[in-house]
Amino acid sequence: MTDAFEASADHHYYFVTGRLAESAVRGIVAESAAEKGFAYSIGVMPITVAALMTPKWLLRHLDPPDEATHVILPGYLAGSLDAIRDAVDVPVLCGPKDCREIPEWLGQPPRQISLDEYDIEIIAEINHAPRRSIDEVIAAAISLREQGADVIDIGADPGNRCPNIGDYVAAVVDQGLRVSIDTFDPWEASQAARRGATLMLSVNRSNRQPAVDWGIEVVAIPDTPSDLDSLRETEDYLSSRGVATRLDPILEPIGMGLAASLVRYATIRGEYPDAAMMMGIGNLTELSDVDSAGVNLMLLGVCGELKIDSVLTTQVINWARSSVRECDIARRLVRYAVRHGIPPKRLSDQLVMLRDPKPRPYPDDALASLADSLKDNNYRLFAQDEQVHLISAGLHLRDDDPFRLFDRLMEHRQSDNVDPGHAFYLGFEMAKAVTALTLGKQYDQDQSLHWGHLTRPETHHRIARTSRHRQTG
Questions:
Q1: How many degrees, rounded to 5, is the angle at CA 22 between CA 13 and CA 80?
Q2: What is the largest CA-CA distance in the chain?
Q3: Residue partners of 414: CB distance under 8 A and separation at least 6
Q4: What one-character DSSP code corresponds to residue 218?
Q5: C-alpha–C-alpha distance, residues 317 and 315, integer Å
Q6: Contacts of 130 (CB under 8 A, 6+ apart)
Q7: How much is the pTM?
Q8: pLDDT per residue over 312-370, tens digit each?
Q9: Do residues 471 and 417 touch, judged by C-beta distance below 8 A?
Q10: Alpha-carbon span 129 to 137, nearest angstrom
């Protein structure tokens, strides 16, 4: 438990932290000091994570400046400060565990986190666009824009030239959208450029010569993923001829060189510090049996740190069906994290979909006393301790199997309170409760389970349904 505190302009506060949080603490305390008018200094201890400090270890390293009037320690040390207080001549306080809570702990209003900014462009591909009608491609493009896409990529059919590829491009451009074309066919690329495409994916030794005449930006790739020399040669060829170029060393799937490909991105960024770069992240999300949100956040994090300013994604496979929206959320989290030097934690729960950030179980004694205090026979459902709890006046049933729980209810004297409609309602709610138990989610009766940005609003039925069967207890 942290010490209650109100910062004063008359004091000098010495904040103690570890190396990992140094950047974040400096920025946060500087803002708070400007707001509250106090003096401060930062003591960075020779340890990476502040949570690993112990009082005995800290005493060997703690050296407050003479002007300090208070020493502020991380909240992890709360409850074990006696030895430190005895060794220091000024008051020693425990701040919060999370440095982002320092302003509020210092008496400032809670900080409003804005995730409006981002600096990674999302290119969303419509795969095999020529296999669809133009109207279908327009509808898909508009939907992708609504999900967060900045550029719509028209994916051509490899080896099967589309004679009216320009019509597809022009139709999407007419919707006010920026368009890229994904083809190795120089003729398709030239037609797309003529009808309004502004970016071409992709160019290597095989088609770089005609790329000079298209008049649009291109993405340069190596001839084979591991051949960075060929990427360097293509970049030199294009830049020397005035062709705007983005570099993409090509992300490879797990089992086919993922780690090595990430190293190549870092290598190219080091060699071309100011070059525009792109990463085709669909090579990982589409080719891994895993929900895409976490993968997208990790890859956008790599892009944010390496200043890779565009990603190409698609959402063909079902487990990646919301990738564009996930990338839009992820790029905002990444921008905030990189800019402020903090992990993207407690900023937004929109990508926490399978589980919840922190379930809030009721104390056991609270559930036990609820049945004694209720005066009506409406049913309250709770999900915790690996069981579904059903409570009403004088009744508290629990089981990890909702079928057994319902059977026990029907054996009870209150079973005449359950008609078919009420039974359906209880079944619906208990299915949600079991889902919450299975995944570690918070269950609140008559409220949607929280699925991050995929949460669907739910109409509340309980009051209308149960009021017709209310009995006095």
A1: 60
A2: 87
A3: 377, 392, 395, 471
A4: E
A5: 6
A6: 156, 157, 160, 162, 165, 168
A7: 0.75
A8: 999 999 999 999 999 999 999 999 999 999 899 989 989 998 888 878 787 777 777 77
A9: yes
A10: 7
